Amino acid sequence: xxxxxxxxxxxxxxxVGLGIGVCSMAQSNFMVQCPADNDGIDxxxxxxxxxDIVCKHLTAGDGFATMADGTxxxxxxxxxVPEDVPPGQVFALRQVKAELPGPTIVLREGQxxxxxxxxxxxINRPDLFDTHSVHWHGIPNSGxxxxxxxxxxxxxxxxxxxxxxxxxLGKEGTYFYHCHVExxxxxxxxxxxxxxxxxxxxxxxxxxxxxxxxxxxFAYNDGDGSTGYHVSKAIQLAGFDSRFHAQHxxxxxxxxxQLKDDYHLMNGRGYPDTINPNLLGASPENNGHFSQRMxxxxxxxxxxxxxxxxxNISTTxxxxxxxxxxxxxxxxxxxxxxxxxxxxxxxxxxxxxxxxGQAADLxxxxxxxxxxxxxxxxxxxxxxxxxxxERGGIMTEIVVCPASGCGT
Length: 408
Ligand SMILES: [Cu+2]
Description:
disordered N terminus
């Protein structure tokens, strides 16, 4: 009997081992999954039945970002693989290219996303063998195998590629994504990105023309045009604890219990870098890669509505943000239209307090607002800093141009 039990355990262990081996083999290449859209169905309602599958190829690895005061910080993060990089060259050509934030992913409701993630390793921390993942925070009914939680789903080993799959029907709204492996560390290090889904209502030209001027789109499928906007901007609030990043590259113990951000960021930058339209972040440390590619400047003509897709991904701070001089209305929270049955729960406010993991859709109405420069900023003075430098951090500018146009 004992022998039988021993043999069955041996068989079980071998099977598990074989399973893991096969699984690793299947992952240990850079082949990305991207099926053709030939089902003849126009799932996103844009009139073209062949464009409903979106394929992305991101890498996860390390890199460096430069703060507004010039401090270079070691980061982990995502970056997109250009189409001209051959599959066999991804590992060689895409190391030390982590970006802050990661590439923004914009989808039309109805589209399917194949998000292929390759782990190119952390070349500046060769002692680490960390896996990485993508967790689409807040998406309803995600397949658990694609949820990125290391406790319940596969994560991507160094040298491996894993295809995440998401369907977006009924899931319009503002979200973000991040790596969920050793999540406090990897998010603090910068493994964060923006993702949002445009509603099918954007295809409704009658509702679009109900705006004056006609709306560019809507935040949600509201049925009545109440979330229509002319200009939109996604703004990710985040923060870095400079000591944590310095300890990390120095291969020292990480101060988790003392985590406290001292650089506060909008789209990976502190003011005044937030209003700089150029690519930033190139340094000798990252071989001149522009790791901070996104500004946070907003520009609209008088009379236009501005949609701000705001979320907070800080691991240490709640933020309170406000705009002076332009009425602000909250129309969505956490990827959901603020509505109960037929009753709108929108509210006008002078400030929004938003915690880590939350998202909000803000509509700013510039009707009757005198042309000029306005500020979108945090009211917490201690977060208007870039390290020791004052008058930085979470602040950006909203330029309201005359109704006739912004000129050149
Ligand atoms: Cu990670």
